[in-house]
Amino acid sequence: MKKAYSYAMRNYMSIAVAAAAVLVIAAAVVIARGEIALGAVQGVIGVALFAHLMILGYKRKRDMVRYLRLVTKDETGLSENVLMSVPMPMAVCGIDGTVRWYNDKFSSIFGGTLPYEILDDMIPELKWSDVLKNQKGKGIITELAGRIYSARWFVLRENRAQDDISAHYSVFFYLTDITREKQLEETCDKERADIAIINIDNYDDFSQKSDDDAMEAVCSKIRAAINVWAKKGRAVVKKTDSDRFFVVLEHGSLQGYIDEKFDVVENVRKAAEEAKIPLSISIGIGTGGNIEENETAARNALDMALGRGGDQVCIKDSDQFRFYAGKNREYERSTKVKARAVAVALEEYIKGSDNVIMMGHRAADFDCFGAAIGLQRAVREHGKTPYIVRERVSPAIDKMYNAIKGIDEYSGMFVDENEVLEEVTPDSLLVILDTHRPSMLPCPKLLERVSKIILIDHHRRSTEFVSPCSLIYHEPYASSTCEMVTELLEYMSVGSKLTKTEAQCLYTGILMDTKNFILKTGVRTFEAASYLRKLGLDTVRVRKMFSTSIEDYAMKAEIVETARMAADGIAVAYTENSHRNIRVIASQAADDMLNLNDVSASVVVYPMNGGAGVSARSLGTINVQLITEKLGGGGHMTVSGAQLKGKSVPEGVRMVTDAIRVYAEESK
Length: 668
Known about the structure:
By secondary structure, this protein is an alpha/beta fold. The protein has five domains: 3-72; 86-185, 2-Layer Sandwich (Beta-Lactamase), CATH 3.30.450.20; 192-325, Reverse transcriptase/Diguanylate cyclase domain (Alpha-Beta Plaits, 2-Layer Sandwich), CATH 3.30.70; 337-545, inorganic pyrophosphatase (n-terminal core) (Alpha-Beta Complex), CATH 3.90.1640; 550-666, Diaminopimelate Epimerase, Chain A, domain 1 (Roll). 47% of the residues lie in helices and 21% in strands. The protein starts with a helix and ends with a helix.
């Protein structure tokens, strides 16, 4: 059939007949009035107009036949009737996108005749400019009349004559129904197996000091909660250990769990609180690969969740980690078995090394610096040479650094990036302190130059992690790295050899990170402080480490004065003063803001290195790490920060406010 052509021809003929009829009628009326000459002229014009339109219609028909021949004729002489019967929607468009020819299948999709319709108006996903640029189209996916089609095209060119350099172009367009394939693909995707591994946090610790009956009762409730949760998504649960569950779930149910914000974590916590045993669960989920790959991803995700303090869910696919829940504080472990084991292993690594290089994070603080000072004593007592990498003198630790560098025993211990690279040998040992992120190190090149790396850190784990490591001691429950190092020194044979100055450095780091033993302070924190006190540290001298000038104190007050509530319980303040000690002052201001009424968390934005810095603090009911992570930072539940490169302070305040609002919405 030639519906498009017939429709066009009928239009031309209708116009011709109508025009001729009007002129003939007008001529008859004029002649009837006796104006024969005028009537004759009108009659002639009518006949001429009719003839002109007929000729024009003939030319149009000839052009359309050329289009038809173009798309219905190949080397084998394929006829239009055969092409019209092909069970595939097809159309031919002009170079401007107008529909010139189509078959029945194509018209049935759009419900009628379509001559001179614009194709990209009919198919929203289609851009005609892309069609012309991509002459052999890779295709697009579109939904038409309730079906899904793959649309493809190619441009045809036909010379009008042998000696005519001009050419005639048209676009051949065809659709393939892929609805069934898409449905099968969607079904396969929904039924694809994801793997989850559930861990009961601190199970070993609490099972040792809790009544057996009470422990069994709460574990029974936890298992029941996990089974109810799994059943909602038609998942299969297998208990693999007293504190571990292996889960196979359909990928289609994963989004439902996400929408419910993994309420099983909250349900388990409530059940444990009712039994007065502070247990929680962590879940690692692997998705996006085959079963083997998903199991590996699930184990990595669980390690990440536990490294961030537990009581949360981590999902790992091929691209990223995603975190859910995790808004509660970590529970301290009472057992020190791991600390003893790490102390023994660390001592053996030190004995087997030529020298030991200790490196903290950039812009060192009391915790980072104090841990290095404490650990270097163990290195010296084993007859090895210690080095501490310093990027530059941080204003935060000026007093401590100046007190240390004046002691003869520590001469040559502090080295910069270039100097430390010269000291590296095949048997050098690198100890990374108070960070696990390579981007935070003052000398990342060391990671490539040494073969033995030990990591000691207490920050909640981020997706960026130093790897590979010979030994990892990563405990988010700990108040500080200085607390962890103090425990290690206590179990090493050289712990009692600490000097008063070294004990003061360790104590100062604990004091700073706990905010005078207020935040993240557990039994083991006081035990570490007590051990250092026995070694003769002077608490008055430590207190003087935190003294400040009147100018700095006034600036801190100015920052607090700008504080405004950004959400329930969260205050935001800022300063645009680029003072040398602004990072320290901003952190102190954030600490002081926690003393304000109705403030459970505080955030201060300040200028920093051509951008904006963010310092966040919390009393523990609000997880500020989740806020700063949205800004590319990290840290702890109660202490965290971020750097906003290339951003002004006002821009930083807006970004922080937006992150707080997202956090508040997610916490509902």
